[in-house]
Amino acid sequence: MNQAIRHSWIAAVAMFALIFGAISYVQVVGADELKANAWNRRAILQNYCNDRGAILVGGAAIAESVPGNESCKFQRKYNQPELYAGLTGYFSRSYGVTGLEGAMDAQLAGSSDQLFFDRIGQLFLGNQPKGASVELTIDPTIQKLAYDLIPDGQRGSIVVTDPKTGNILAMVSKPSYDPNSIATQDIAKEQAAYNEAIKIPGVNLNPSVSGPTGALLAPGSVFKLVDTAAALNSGKYNADSVLPNPAQMSFPGIQYQLPNYAGGNCYTRTTASFAFALQQSCNTPFASIARDLGENAIAQQASKFGFGQELGDQLKLDYAKSVFPSDLDAAGLAQSAIGQRDVRATPLQIALMTSAIANGGVQMAPNLIKAVRSPDLRVIEEPKPVALRTSTTPEIAGQITDWMTSVVSEGIGSGAAVPGVQVAGKTGTAELGDGLNNSWFTGFAPANDPQVSVTVVMQGVDITTGAQLTSPNAKKIFEAVLNK
Name one GO molecular function term (predicted). Predict the structure, then answer.
């Protein structure tokens, strides 16, 4: 009998400890995580009708709280909604919070520890606490220009950054959507709008799987910048190296042959310098470099540029990690070296790689937040530039910059040339089949003192359309930034 009582007592104590531990976790350890969860509807409903802080670009609100109705005192409103939807995300009763609305929810809702004394002050005055405003690094003129440069109906992304600071000046994608329709207080309309939006291929409802930060795309020849850095870093190659440039590359034991790029003048030479190979975007020289150096060398250099790595805390938006595959056979390594096979990169990743070259080999953390201000306009957060990683040496970055400059001045990137300014660039064409490609341009200017880095990708286009929508559009952005 005593033994049964003892066992019952032990079981009761164990159950009490389990319940106490679970409550402690929910209330203390996991409280912030649970509150921040985009699908925590209780947290959303608690703050849904409150006066959230504004998200600002150039001093104007792109997301703000406006007077609601009798049942809900405030309503979230998005201005120029399609232009900024990929950044703001939405604040929805049924579908949670995404984008900066989710990432900066504590500040916008006024529940952040940074606003503790503001909340106390408002309570003493009998007022409803108000959220902080979040000012972005985005330049509204450049954002609008970049968005308009992607034709309606065309899937594409453009990222514009300051390579010296990591500040994002513009980040857009199409197709887009109207977050007002998903943030409406009319639940039936909210659900209908959401169900329509998710049917649109490539729409940037979730930054971690679509748009500039989440769309994992074959990068094509812009990846040759990774090969070039790896080659120079190995010590086996230098500015005077002569590279093999056959019309195609064969592999032992298989019938497959890797062709050289047919769109430029690669066929005119059987050997090539680095400058010529990059100017004309020849395939076989870089495939040869990868076979010579081996998979690990290319993978390690890709990692130094950010493939598979964290992008820091200042971006705020969710993102996908870019991928360089492993366990490659000879043909797979050759294809991967030219940005095909299973290599996948986000537009933001290519922008960061290019910016690292522009910044003397140092990759700065991407940053979207210029300042967070309390309701009385006091600055409570002002992110400073953060060096994320060293991608290569200043000497190698300088040499690659020289070659990228010749891609624009003498090669197939000439559409990006700006009169009176040295522009460094690299084009890319990743084949998708059926004559369609991902068409890329990435570069920076001025080459000798970079002020702006631009990455453009258009998805599912033919070669002619891709050439019209990448380098020439990058030129327009370079001119707009440099002439401000």
Answer: penicillin binding
Same fold: 40-212 with 220-360+391-482: no
The residues near 470 (Cβ < 8 Å, ≥ 6 apart) are 415, 427, 439, 440, 441, 456, 457, 458
**Calpha distance 110→177 (Å, rounded):** 27
Strand pairing of 387-390 and 424-433? unpaired
Whether CATH 3.40.710.10 fits 220-360+391-482? yes
- Strands (E) in 145-197, as ranges, are 156-161, 168-174
Architecture of domain 40-212: Alpha-Beta Complex (3.90)
Known catalytic residue at 221: yes
- Measure the CA–CA gap between 19 and 65, rounded to whole angstroms: 40
Length of the chain: 484
What region, left, alpha or beta, does residue 101 occupy, with left being phi > 0 and alpha being psi -120 to 50 degrees?
alpha
For residue 439, give the nearest of 230, 203, 217, 242 by alpha carbon: 217
Q: How far apart are CA 257 and CA 243, in angstroms?
A: 18
Q: What angle do CA 195, 216, 104 make, to 5 degrees?
A: 65
Determine how β-strand 133-136 pairs with β-strand 55-57: parallel
pLDDT tens-digit map of 287-345:
999 999 999 999 999 999 999 999 999 999 999 999 999 999 999 999 999 999 999 99
Pair 259, 241: CB distance under 8 Å: no
Choice among 111, 181, 221, 391 that is catalytic: 221
Where do the domains of the chain lie? 40-212, 220-360+391-482
Token pair in block for residue 166: 């990591």
Its pTM stands at 0.89
